[in-house]
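in:
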């Protein structure tokens, strides 16, 4: 299975690894493959947040975007533990343009690495948006 890895380095520490109160905004990254473009932007990875979200925008002109993004998305920490979203807030399946936010419970611990994985959107089978947390 091929993996597109889009790496984003956080500008300030997150997940409670530092004494600063807030992390800097995280830049969006885009993955283009198989006629489907996906952009992912972490909204907040603060340890004290009630939930974490990643804004996802999908665009294509080749097939409908009919995935249930609450089922095909996962956060993965540096130890390989996967976390499924508690909800998807956004546009329903279908069409050629979708935008929304899978929402996750904050990941506890001191992981220095975090990925958003989205499966089943086109070749390759998995899109990976990774953040290295300092």
């Amino acid at each position: 299975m091929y993996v597109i890895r889009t790496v984003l380095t956080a500008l300030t520490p997150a997940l409670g690894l530092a004494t600063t109160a807030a992390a800097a905004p995280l830049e969006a990254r885009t993955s283009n493959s198989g006629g489907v473009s996906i952009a992912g932007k972490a909204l907040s990875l603060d340890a004290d947040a009630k939930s974490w979200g990643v804004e996802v925008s999908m665009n294509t002109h080749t097939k409908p975007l009919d995935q249930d993004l609450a089922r095909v998305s996962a956060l993965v920490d540096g130890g390989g533990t996967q976390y499924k979203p508690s909800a998807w807030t956004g546009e329903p399946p279908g069409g050629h343009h979708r935008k929304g936010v899978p929402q996750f419970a904050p990941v506890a611990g001191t992981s220095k690495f975090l990925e958003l994985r989205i499966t089943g959107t086109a070749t390759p089978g998995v899109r990976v948006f990774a953040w290295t947390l300092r």
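note: The chain has one domain: 25-132.
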